Amino acid sequence: MNVPLILPQFLDRAVALYSDKVAVHCEGRVVTYQQLNDRVNQLSCGLRNLGIKKGDHVAYLAGNSLEMLEGFYGVFQLGAVIVPLNIRLKPEDYVFILNHSESKVLFVDQDLYDLIRPVKDQLETVKHLIVHYKDSETNETGYDEWLANFSSEPFNREELDENDVCSLLYTSGTTGNPKGVMLTHRNNYLHALSTMHHLRVSDSDVYLHVLPMFHVNGWGSPFYYTANGATHICSRKSTPASIFKAIQEHNVSILHMAPTVLNALLQHFDEHHPHIEQAIRVIIAGSAPPPAFIKRVEEELGWEFIQVYGMTESTPLSLISTIRSNVTGLTKEQQTELKAKAGYPMIGNDVRLLNEYGEEVAHDGKEVGQVAVRSHGVMKGYWKNEEATKEAIRDGRLLTGDMGTIDEKGYINIVDRKKDVIISGGENISSIEVEGVLYDHPAVLEAAVIAVPHEKWGETPYAYIVLCDNMTATEQEIIAFSREKLAHFKAVSGITFVEELPKTASGKIQKVQIRDAYWEAQGKEGRLVN
Asked: Please, what is the Cα angle at 488 between 364 and 525, to 5 degrees?
């Protein structure tokens, strides 16, 4: 008889093999795998007591915590669906997502409760609101007191099928409302098996949760680190100082994060030089980092840099950029350039680059096509949005909207989002390529390049830049720098200096907000240079 690929098996395995091992450190609390399982059973009993049934939706507005981690397994035992919420949204955004998802229970951290308080009366389906870390002034049900009412004995699980939806993740809507991505137990289970292999996850790992668990389930980290009996280090808020402190105190061996977060760690390291002895793997996804950035991580921090690629709709990871054993004869510089690419397909993924006619592009590192994914991770679809589902998945392939090239070694390089490609005088310009050059300037901390109108060329690259602390640079200086490093038509033609760039909760730069800022400032700031 076949064993269904369902996620509660991962915690079952950890309890069977690592029951007395520390599963979670969370802000002073230490929980073994047996104790984690006991709490999960209590949570499942509590949800059943609230009337939650198979297929119901349970939402979480929480930071990286023990409560968030146990929520996945506690919800899954009922055959219910977890709806993790981005903690950086506005109250009206939560109204849409909670009503659209038809969530019946909402768990929320006390320090995030003020995001829900003003819109409580607008929530149409939420019948129960339970607060983690509740203070005495909040007139809601407190999580700890509520949980204590229920048994930790083995829970009588609902019958689960691997094709059941287990999580509903809302993507950031650049236009219109966000879409709910339906991922199944099978999606997450097979993604975990593939990812744990490529990231070399083992029971000796200590994983620090920096990437938010609400962000496509923290790239699946609650699943494959648990399955392997690794130790989770959780903190609801992370700063560069607290991250380095956790690395030192808990002997952390692996972290996931966006490039902007890693950049902040590099800045902190430059100023404070924290001492770290153990080997560390840092997994990065998001905007492509320049090779110089990777070199700093590996030479200054001494960490192994691993670039991955994916999106929520593919569970998410599809590509990895480690150097394969059959790719030989490369200089150190060439190896770094390969590591900066999105990479080659992970096991279980068929990733191709297709031109506008649906044909695969040449493996020459030059011809550009759209990244299209067929894999075990491709979503079941968008919740209550068949039209968007049909638009995203065609002929069995997920169309990512990312444009890239593929070289003769099979390494894919993302040149831009389809909507972010700049067309100047009929030439396509990758904003990512231009940003990579700007990062080489010693005064540039962060850079984002967008297309702006130009009378002669139609469009031209324009940069928003954050300077490093205690460093200065002029617009003309950086424009000249970009012209030295790039073909003239690719160089930036104007710059706006800002104190910070807008980012998602996972640290990814939000270019849609930067474009909005440009148009709001048009005629007032950001002079164009001919």
From this structure: 120
